[in-house]
Structures are given as C-alpha cells and as structure tokens.
Amino acid sequence: MREQSARYFFLIMIPAFVLLTLFLYYPIIQGTVIAFQKYTLFDMTNTPFIGFDNFKAIFTDINFNFGQIMLNTLIWVCVSLALQFVLGFILALLMQKPFRGRGIYSSLVFYPWALSGFAIGLVWAWIFNGQFGLVNDILLRLGLISNPVGFLSNPSYAMASVIVANIWYGVPFFAIMLLAALQSVPAELMEAGKIDGAGPLRRLFSITIPYIKPTIISTTLLRTMWIMNFPDIIYAMTGGGPSNSTNILATQMINKILKFYDYGQGSAFGVVIMVLLFTYALLYLRLTSGKEETF
Amino acid sequence: MKLLLRTLKVLLLGLFLVVALGPLYWVIVTSLKGGQEIYTFPIRYWPSEVTFENYKYLFRISDFSIYFKNSLLISLLASAGALLISVFSGYALSRIRSRRPKLILLLGMYFTQIIPTYMLMSPLFISLAKIGMTDSLIAITFVYVSMMIAFSTIMAKSFFDRIPVALEEVAMTDGCTRTQTIVKVVLPLTLPGLAAIFSFAFVNIWNELFLAVMLLSSNHNMTVPVALNSFISKAGVNWGVLSAGIVVALLPTMLVFAFAQRYIIMGLTEGAVKG
User: Fold this and answer.
1) ipTM given for this complex
2) For helices B239-271 and B64-95, what crossing angle results, to 10°?
3) Considering only CB atoms, which chain A residues are within 8 Å of B115?
4) Could you tell me the CATH number of the domain that includes residue B96?
5) Partner residue opposite A137 with nearest CB, options B43, B228, B275
6) Where do runs of H (alpha helix) occur along chain A?
7) Which CATH architecture has domain A66-294?
C-alpha cells in the first residue's frame, strides 16, 4: 500500500516537472550558456563562444556606467522597500480594529496590488507628465513651483518619480501581509499590556512588533528580491533614462534584448543578476532559518 | 484626547483611500476627455463634456478587441492548466512521506520562484525560434502555465496540508481509487484555495508583458500589454487613447480582485513568496 502510493505520487507530479524542465530549468541553463556566446538577432546561425567578452563588454560599456547602474539598483530597492513597508504597516495598524465598511474599504485600498506594473507605470508617467501632468498642476496651484517641472526628463527628479510610483504599487502588499499577521496577535496579550499600564505606543513596540517579527523579516527580505527584479514601472515611465538616471540591472538587461537585440550581453546581465540573487537567497535562508526557534 | 485620536485615524484612512484611488480616477477622467481638453493647463478635474471618442478610436484604429480576446483566452486557459496540474503536484508534495525526496522536490519548486520571468526572454525566444514556435499563442500559453506551476503547487500544498489524511483513508477503504479520492473528497474541501490559485494565476498572466513582447510579433497575436507597449513606442503618444487602453487593460484584473479578494488575500498570506 505504502509503496503503491509513493509510485502514484511521483506519477501525478510528472506533468508539473516536465513543463518546469522544458520552460524553466532548461532555459535558465541555456541562458547561462548564451552569456558566453556571441548571440544577436542579426546572425542567429553564427554563434561562436567568446569566453568572458560579453561580461567585459557590459562592465566597460561607454553608453552607461556599470557602477551607476548598481548604485541606481541599490537606491531603487532601499528607498522603495523602506517606504512601502512603513506606509503599509501604518495602513495595516489603522485597519487592525474592525470598523463599519472595512471589507469594502480594503478592496478599494488594496486593489493596486492586482494591477499590471506596466500599466501602472504608464498611468504614473501621465501623472508626472512635464507639461500637462497632475503633479505639476497640484504643485502650481499650491504655489510650490512657478513653472511646470519635467519630472521624467530631468535626471535629478526621474528616480524619485519612479520610486513614488513603485511605493504606491507596493504598499497594499505589505498592508495585506502585516494585517494578516496583526490579526494573529492574541487579544489577551494586548489586554495584559493594558492592565500593566502600557500605552498604545508602548504596546506597539513591546508586544505587537516582537510578536509579528517573523512576518516582518520574511516579507521585507523576500520583497527586496522582488523589487530588485521589477523592471515594469521603470520600463514604462522612463525606459531607464534620462541619461541612465533610472537604469537598474533589470531594465538594462531588457534594453539589451529589446533595443539592441544582443542576447549574449543580455544573458551576461542575467548571469550577474542570478549571482546576486543566489547570494542574497543564501543569506536570507541563513538569517531566517537560524532564528526560527527563538521566536 | 480619544476623540482627537479617532479623528486622526479617520483622516489617515481617508488619505490612504484618496491616494490609492487618485491615479485610477485620473486615468479614467483622461480617457473620457475630448482631444483638446487633455492638453490644457491648468488641468480640469472633470471633463467639460464626457465623450467616449477615445474608446471608439481605440477599437477602430487598432484591433483592440482581438488583443483583448487573445489576452482573455491565454489567461483563462493557462490559469486553468496551471490549476489542474498543480492540484496534483501539490497534493503529491503534501502527502509524500519520505523526507529526502520531498525536500528535493520542494526545493525544485522554490528555486523557480527566485527566477524573474524576464530572465527567460532570450533563451525561450531562441529555443522556440529553432522549432518555429515563436509568435504562437499555443506556445506562450504553455510558457505561462509553466511559469505559474511552481507558485500554484506551493499554494496547493499548503492548503492540502491542512486536510487530515484520515478523511482520505475512509474514502479509500470504501473503495475509491486515489484519483477519485482527490476529486471527490479533497478538492471540495479546498474550493476557496482553488479559487485563490486560479485568480492569482489569472492576474499574473493577464499582466505579463516582457515574455509576450519577446514571443509574440504579429498583430493578430498581440496581447493587451503588448499592444499598449506598441502604442508608446510609436512616435507621439496620444494620451487620450492610451488612457482608454489602460482602463480596458486594468478592468479584468480589477473585476477578478473585487470578486476574489478574499481568496487572493488568502493566497498571498498563504504562499507568501511572490507578490
């Protein structure tokens, strides 16, 4: 009986693993191989191996500074993550106690999560438009600026603009996750805190936050990877410009493929991203698995 | 003091709501404005005359109804496919007892979760080009099914984990085969979970841009995101028509979210890997 069911289990997993192998595992291996080949759309039959030339090319490309792209990626991830988390946490705290219409409120305030990052990027590109944009109009009416600002065409404002769009998009995710965690905090614990005379802020920092710490750690760490690999909004708003001021690793890889049709160099970017991802994932696993018991 | 805190709370909740809905309101208003009014400054926050010109134009000059149909067909088929396959793989992963194989198979699933989809652009294009399967709706449906399998499986497993094995044993001693037990006993108990998996996959596939841009090229095969992308790469963006296109692109996932919000949130907190 036991042996028979083991065979059955492996049998019903075959479709899943066949598809994963064909469309995920194999392409990832192939993508790594292409990174060491000269591979462009213009000559797909002649694809010689060229060692590390693609990597040399992307590290020394005169059209962009690789260091700047790394720095942009870092700023994009850190600022987006910090503000998404803080705002998402505030929203979750505000929604923690039931109120009339909370169900409807949550569908109205959480809906950005379900939207396409690309379409959201287009909407925000229009909002930040340098001539007829909503942001310019509001700032002019408030008297904060005297002339419309080209938010997306000015390298000093472009990164801030795409990050604003990204924060708007990511707040619901944190609010949903943290709200679920908040609802698991036992009411008795809060009551005990109240009886001991702890105020709301004290209860937040000494009871709530320690209690939901595992959720906080795992969501922020996972989200870091996700934001780093989320090119959709930038691609729609600036395409990485102006003069590379919003170019991150992911958008530069996509530009290499969709604009320059250079699959070799695109894949070299892919390898760089994967190395970073795996290093990060290993760190993440060590950080979370080591501490599990202490919570 | 208590009243002050309450007012502050209501104000903040209101502020979050306004900021969340603002961009959506703005894109809808833009799509309902006439050609000239979009490009006036200062801005009008409500069209002087509501017109559906942009929508008519969208469906007349482009084959937007075809793109919409393609997107809908691919998203429905691929989500259904991913659901069907991952129900079985998720069940198996939940019930396998031998530790080592279970761990390896689970790692195989989790591994694919840290691979961003745009990483597959060039290798998939090159492989499919070799067998003449680029620009094919069937091929991209298979790609999307595979893209969603791992996350769906992980979610399905977590739902099955909560169903006691004893229930199945009763059914099996009553003469049900394994497959019958899954279909008749286990699945009815996890219907909300299945809804979560399906809506999750649907939203992700409907929104996917880069693989579609890479793999679909001819006009009659385009999906909605690919069409929007081709609108902006053409010189001179017409924001009225583009806004209409965005509204049409956002509609299905907003509907799915409105109806399946409870399940989607359940899936998000349950799966907790991809957002």
Assistant:
1) 0.90
2) 10
3) 24, 28, 274, 277
4) 1.10.3720.10
5) B43
6) 2-20, 26-34, 53-60, 66-95, 102-110, 117-127, 134-141, 155-182, 187-195, 200-203, 209-211, 213-228, 232-237, 249-258, 263-291
7) Orthogonal Bundle (1.10)
Q: What is the mean pLDDT of chain A?
A: 90
Q: Do the chains contact at B16 and A176, CB–CB below 8 Å?
A: no
Instruction: Give the best residue of A32, A118, A289 to mutate against chain B (max B CB count within 10 A).
Output: A118
**Distance between start and end Cα atoms, chain B:** 39
Closest chain A C-alpha to B146 CA, distance in angstroms:
5
List the single best residue of A9, A251, A271 to mutate versus B (max B Cβ within 10 A). A9
Token pair listed for B218: 């001819």
Q: Using CB atoms, which residue from B17, B93, B124 is nearest to A108? A: B17
Interchain contact, A267 vs B214, CB within 8 Å? no
Count of CB atoms situated within 10 Å of the CB of B76: 16
Low-confidence ranges of chain B (pLDDT < 50): 273-275
Establish if B122 belongs to a structural domain: yes
Question: Could you read off the pLDDT of A118-176 as tens digits, one per residue?
Answer: 999 999 999 999 988 999 999 999 999 988 999 999 999 999 999 999 999 999 999 99
| Parent domain of B121 | 65-225+259-271
Q: Three-class SS of residue A238? A: coil
Taking the CA atoms of chain A, what radius of gyration do you get in angstroms? 24
- Structure tokens that stand for B37 in this block: 């009014």
How far apart are alpha carbons A190 and A209 in whole angstroms?
12
Q: Does the pLDDT value for residue A31 go beyond 80?
A: yes
Give this prediction's pTM.
0.91
Do A119 and B225 count as a contact with CB atoms less than 8 A apart?
yes
Instruction: Give the 3-state secondary structure of B141-169.
Output: HHHHHHHHHHHHHHHHHHHHCCCCHHHHH
Cβ pair B162, B149 in contact under 8 A: no
- Domain-embedded: residue B107: yes
Q: What is the pLDDT of residues B202-248, one digit of tens each?
A: 999 999 999 999 999 999 999 999 999 988 866 568 899 999 999 99
Closest CA to A111 of A183, A176, A162, A167: A176
